[in-house]
Amino acid sequence: MIISSAAQRQPVLRAVNALLKPSIAVRSPQRRHLAHRVPLLDHDAQFNSQGIPNLLSREGYDIAWTQYHSYLVQKLNALTAGTTDEHSLTRSIALKYARDPSKAALFNYASMACNNHLFFSTISPTLVPMSENFLKQINDSFSSLTSFRATFLATADALFGPGFVWLVRLKPPVDSSTPPLAILTTYIAGSPFPGAHFRQQPVDMATSATNVIPGQSPQAYVLSNVQRSAMGSAGRFGSESKGAIKLAPGAQDLEVLMGVNTWEHVWLRDYGVGRKRQFLENWWERINWDLVERNMDAGGVAKSTPGFRAIKR
User: Fold this and answer.
1) Which residues of the chain register pLDDT less than 50?
2) Nearest CA to 252 among 155, 164, 179, 158?
3) pTM for this structure?
């Protein structure tokens, strides 16, 4: 049987059309706009090509920042896609789900992304000394810079397992004898921000009446006690005023100024087992104290850093 040339062309045309249709009709999921992206650090280009001098090699920086933060962002985008949290800041997501066990994964990725960004954002490729004004703040709270350094590094070195150690400023009202600056430790991906979890317990929660229901969130506790504490609390500056931070019972309002990441993936590649202390001492020499002071003047990193979902410029 002889087949005409026109008939021979039909299967070919059908095959070509079958190949073309998917690319026209189906939108690749990789092209979807991603709400959360890896923030651009001030010295990102230099760190990417050379590492952080006397702190992390180029490969170490790539693991601790580029690869790891990309992983956190990928997880965040997967968990928030199509939800009301898709365009929220990582700090906002962490605070929103800090006491929600059903959203533990989302909290962990959001809080870790926020914490990791805070850690890297105050690192400088060169030595940036403290100003006299900030040094006075340190002396007032820790007696001396030497004492502050020794306490901070010892706290971070003694932290068993992954976590963060923060320099924070306590906000009024605090006891007049309480120093304004303090050291705060958080574990795993725990958030240092007020409202994230129960931070302080002035009484024994197991034996004292606290009006806290087991498993109750700070928000639920506040709502259940509004009537008891309503007197003088609803004014412009009251605890129930618009914009007031809802704190858990016994929690301390504070501002985060800087922090160090003690997770092993940050330092193990360059320093080896058992040498976290050397990493911490090298990190101390790369702190941008000018930026830390600016964080304090601005009311903490939450106000001085533009969001925690910065998009690469």
Assistant:
1) 1-31, 199-208, 226-241, 306-313
2) 179
3) 0.73
